[in-house]
Amino acid sequence: MGGCFSKPKPEKEVDGLSPNGKASPFADCRPNGALGHGSDDDSTPLPPYHKPRDYVEASVCHVKDLENGQMREVDLGSGRALLIKEHGEFSAMGHKCPHYGAPLVKGVLSKGHVRCPWHGACFNIATGDLEDFPGLDSLPTFQVRVEKDKVIIRANKQALQSQRRSKPMSRCSAVINSSTGFSHVLIIGSGPAGLVCAETLRQEGFTDRIVMCTMDRHPPYDRTKLSKSLDSTAEQLRLRSMDFLQEHDIELLTEKEAVAIDVKTRSVTFEDGLRMEYRKLFIATGSKPIPMSFRGKDVRNVFHLRTPDDANSIARLANNKNAVIVGTSFVGMEVAAALTDKAHSVSVIGIESVPFKKALGEKVGKAIMKLFEANRVKFYMLNEVSEMIGHHGQLKEVVLNSGKVLRADVCVIGAGSVPATGFVKQSGLHVDSKGFITVNKMMQTNVDGVFAGGDVVMFPFPPRNNKKVNIPHWQMAHVHGRVAALCMMGRAAEMKTVPYFWSAMFGKTIRYAGYGEGFDDVIIQGDLDELRFVAFYTRSEEVVAVASMNYDPIVSRVAEVLASGKTIKKRDVEMLARLGKTGDISWLIDKGSQ
Q1: Pairing of β 287-289 and β 417-419
Q2: What do you get for the CA distance between the two ends of the chain, in Å?
Q3: What is the pTM of this model?
Q4: Which pLDDT belongs to residue 587?
């Protein structure tokens, strides 16, 4: 596997992006951002260091200490590095995943890259380049040599400390007044799809104007942490600072809500009256909460968790009070878990018999439900909200369809979402009955020059014979953004990635890889009661997805097998379950069959 992108057979001609409409002047640039890859001799965003004191050099092991296919975290005195041996060659790079800081030594080494054990990001061992998401940054690489059977690493001290690097990016050379209502690329949405699209364009040598618009009032931040860490500020969750965006000529317009698209004039109108024309448009507006039908919608202290400000308000209002969560989505359940050490009581209302039944299966759902109940969470399943009752306009009670009345001082609604595509109607873009924008494998819509990605799209998924699917994962949105950017520049690239998501509750993390929609069986290895298990989701005779708790890096190992194009047979998983070989991941390489 060479990352999540490969050169496909032409699907349809893509036009390179340039101000005059001619072929892109950057067509000869190498794909995948390979303008430099972070060794000490390559061009990187770090300032050039030529003084010996800026470097450290250390003998880290004997040449025979590592076998082929092994990794070791080594100490250079000024910091640590990951030493790798593959095919008889040594290489060294940063030892922490720049996404959340996972120790890569516990990850999966395969075919020239390391896959993170926590969330599945991949890094090329020769260049340090990020090859599969999530995350935005790559890793620094370090010089390795062998002298007298000793392995010696020479590394830049600052790189050892930072454990991350951004790929080189071009600047905007177009002379355009910032108040001009035209952008060569207009991006609606500043989530991972929009941000990766903008950064990829700059990494690939795009030198025209990029404008990114968002309804939010903050620069891009990690929305996945909102429900897990309610006290975090926008600054603490920040993905890129305004200084970073300005330095790379990515213009960000905050508090801008798109209300209409005119594909004939290639323009977007915003709620405040702003009208922006574009040459290329990327729609990545994400999702919005499902409309609810209960009475009493005007009562205060009822939240849809959308922003850091919402999260902070929920945490403050729930302190020693009664909190009610409506819905057993991952967001709703994460909020419930986060509130147990703040609120006086936490109640969860769900329409299913157990949480996560559709996504993870009944057995796993019951095990997780027990974890919540052991932490004082009260469930009211097979129920819905009938009414919110307030006192002086402030929430006091939640009434269920069953007639049960719950005391409530704050309520969070996490009952699912729908695509935020209302403004696309009447535009001529193809939108299905559920509001999803349909795109091809290069994230192109049916309208020339208009692309879409992230939660809002139905896209062809190769492992399901290119069936159009919607996969609203944080990681997948990154992939969409990069594919769209490459296509805009006339470099067709398609996805070769495996969907990957995670959820954290009470200090425990569920990891999940694959696409399990429509699974017909779940094979459990390990102990559900102890929450140390692996769950394999199968359709017919093949494994289509895997989930685990406390069994790293098995989910990343399965992702690696699936990404290589191999299949995992149900019979092999069943046999290992009978033999009690839970957590043994060596068989996955051997048992994957073409």
Answers
A1: antiparallel
A2: 14
A3: 0.88
A4: 62
